[in-house]
Amino acid sequence: MPTRLKEARKASGISQKELGIRLGMDPSSASGRMNHYEKGRHMPDIATLRRIADELGVPLSYFFCDSDSSAKLACLIEKLSEEDKEELIRKLEDN
């Protein structure tokens, strides 16, 4: 989770402090708290992690993927419409 959090934040082009502030953290501690999450010293609760995912534009599942390819797929799938997701499921089940 820590590595994916850092990757998603950097891809969004925002600092640790800015992300923390967007999540409602006090500006004086936002950078430090986000740094602890990115270093794996602390884990955000699921509600906070969901807000982080929303703020960074990634699905919550992105943070729990075992591989980079699964994480990338999670992001791509999230962008699909429900209809396209159903079609993809049918195609994959047919294989």
TrEMBL record:
Gene3D superfamilies, A to Z: lambda repressor-like DNA-binding domains (1.10.260.40)
Signal peptide: none
Keywords recorded for this protein, A-Z: DNA-binding
Molecular function GO terms recorded: DNA binding; DNA-binding transcription factor activity
Coiled coil (UniProt feature): none
Chain ranges of the HTH cro/C1-type domain: 5-63
Any Pfam family: HTH_3
GO CC annotations, alphabetized: cytosol
UniProt-recorded name of the protein: Putative transcriptional regulator
Organism: Photobacterium marinum
